[in-house]
Amino acid sequence: MSMSINTNNAAMAALKSLNQTSDDLSTTQNAISTGKKVNNASDDPAVYAISQGMNAQISGLSGVSTGLQFAGQVLNTTNQATISITSNLSTLSSTITQAANNGMDQTKLNSAIKSTLSSIDSAANTATFQGVNLLSGSTGNGVNYNTISAAQDINGNLFTQSGFNATSAGLGLQGLSTSMSGTVINNPGTLSGSGTSASVLQVQNQAQTNNTGAAGNPAITTSFILDNKPGDSSGASSTVSSMINDALTSGSGFTVSISNGKLSVNDSHSKSAIASTTTNSDGTTSYKLTNGDNIQTQADASGNMTYTISKGGDVDSNGNVRAMSKIVDIDISKASSAGSATQQNNAAEATLVTAINNAGFGAQTNNDGSITMAGGNLDTTNNNVKMGTYSAGQGGNPGSVTSNTTTSQTSGTTVVQLAVGAALSSIERISSKIGVATNSVTQLQSSTSSLSDSLTSGVGALTDADMAAESAKLTSLQTKQQLAVQSLSIANSQSSQIMSLFRG
């Protein structure tokens, strides 16, 4: 073995081993102190990149969870208010029935009605959580939003629940008293759903008649169209498309068509006049047109499509709609197989009455075949309930219903009960939708939490250190370090051994 003072191979080997051991010991100590085996890209570039992406997803899901929690609180607040309103209406219905049977003083009954309506308004208007109210029907007075939206995933998809109007006016109880008037459609006649001769029932609320539409109590014209071919702009549905078009801002030059239930609106150049489309979680679809008008579509409890049209000029500075037209496309195709012509007509009338009730009015078929309507803030004066056929507008003028039947006013306990019953049905439908929305949010929260937990576990599996293994490794490396130091010390002592060769 050669000995050199310039090159000490043993010392270099020992130093290299010591440096490597020190590096490994530093890595192990870092893993023990942080609990992670991959702390930065230099530890493992591929695993670090994957873990960072997963951590970003976890952070995004945290934001999603927070938004869903907020939506859940809004819905819980709304649900409590609907319970209160339902209870008030149920009590009022019972009171009215008892009054009719026991001859309660009308003044006392009207006082009870007034008190109940006040309680309903209070419950609806105070169901506000952080500026969001789904029952007030309008913004303002501390209410900033009438809808609730929350991210349901990290891809930007939204859960959206539209608001309702559960105030006394929104439930159609404006002017409710023992003297409230209803309307009797004396002879609906032969109901048809073919071509442009489709039968149409058109009604107005009091705000429409009096031109007093405002936030929370807009002016509304509602048209019920009996249709053998719903969802198609050919045949009877041409009445539907004509009425939608006539309800838009005059002079827009738009053409409305319906194909397989899908709405299309084209401008005078045959280009789409729909600027944007939004579909909410409850199935409501809103179309914003290029001229600022809006069309909202939603199926009622029987599956009949309802088109709600509001003009851009009828929206106030807070975004509240002050006037609108509602067009209900009623499917009477099944009535054609009901048997004789009389049976078919009776089936069509029954379908019409159901649709009227679904729209928030109270309606019933009487023994003589007439229909009694009440509630929905219905205006019963000046022939504002019309049953006939619709003639499309010409030269920018709106179309009109030519009535071919007579109507008359009626009053009494039946009318009041119809109005209250309609309000009860409306709040029950609202409660049902809020319940569905609450369940949806709960399920989304659960799936978000489960996904976040899975991702967290995945990141842990990729980056977390095995503390038992790291502890054993630490002991081994500390021993190796001590041995490396000892080995380096021995190697460095070789130079002193060389000196012994030159001693005399």
TrEMBL record:
Domain Flagellin C-terminal: 419-502
Family statement: Belongs to the bacterial flagellin family.
Its job: Flagellin is the subunit protein which polymerizes to form the filaments of bacterial flagella.
Pfam family, one: Flagellin_N
Primary location: secreted
Source species, domain of life: Bacteria
UniProt-annotated location(s): Secreted; Bacterial flagellum
Keyword vocabulary terms for this entry: Bacterial flagellum, Cell projection, Cilium, Flagellum, Secreted
Annotated ranges, domain Flagellin N-terminal: 5-138
Keyword Secreted: yes
InterPro entries xrefs: Flagellin, Flagellin_C, Flagellin_N
Entry-linked PANTHER family: FLAGELLIN
Keyword Signal among record annotations: no
Protein name listed in UniProt: Flagellin
